[in-house]
TrEMBL record:
E.C. number(s) listed in UniProt: 2.7.11.1
Source species, domain of life: Eukaryota
Biological process according to GO: response to osmotic stress
Naturally occurring in which organism (per UniProt): Glycine soja
Protein's UniProt name: non-specific serine/threonine protein kinase
SMART domains the record matches: S_TKc (SM00220)
Amino acid sequence: MEKYEIVNEEIGIGRDAVVRLMRCKETKDLVAVKYIPREDRIIDEKVAREIINLRSLRHPNIVQFKEVALTPTHLAIVMEYAAGGELYNRVCNGRIREDEARYFFQQLISGVSYCHDKEICHRDLKLENTLLDGSPANRLKICDFGYSKSYLLHSRPHSVIGTPAYIAPEVLSGKDYDGKLADVWSCGVILYTMLVGALPFEDIKDTENFQKTIKRVMAVQYKFPERVYISQDSKNLISRIFVANPAMRITMKEIKSHPWFLKNLPKELRDGAQDVYYNEENTKYPLQSIEEIMNIVNEAKTTTATSSPYL
């Protein structure tokens, strides 16, 4: 990690990790570095899966993986820095007007659809895991692939994971489910929340009551408040996403052809328009091999020294 210098001690914190803002000394580019303690109970298959899955995704609406490295005390995942912060913070300031919400949703679907094309489901899509890059274009970036699964490398999803307010009914069953269709549901929760300014299945007066939230999810119990104007097309799209039976739920392909989604769709988000980006990025940043990454992850489980995590 000698090629990076600290800019900000902490820009994010999770249960087992902290994210720090750093700068590459050579390029002067800002990067976000996720530090995970080198403990066997923390450095597990989930961590390896997050890194390998993120490595395989090169898309303008997904936070870009750069490299993984070791310090004496931590495993460090170096990623693209999104200066605009979480989309969650935008919604906390009030609902987003429909045209802007559509623009963010179009980018979200573009990124998630790409993941699905690569046979990867995210499984924890929420406002907190969608970032803004801070540019004039306000590009959305999907992050945190800690719960992601690859249909090519891993078993079919069956674990009850995710955030209660965003989780699909079938995930709660404890049986195998289609992670892609569960992602569609979560995208619907994000869209509803942007348009309304509140989560669809959460009691605004009892937000910590997760059992009540789960009951509402299972019953698909939500409504559009009368005080908020929302177009009929957007209501139609949301109603086709919030369907308890995943086999009857709108698919990603159908979302991308829905009239509300297609309205003012930017050229760069149309199918095939991003091929140039993929090709350029794949040659611009040569990636560590999967074997090299796995060797680093396995080494991270070995005995550590008590020293600064920034070395």
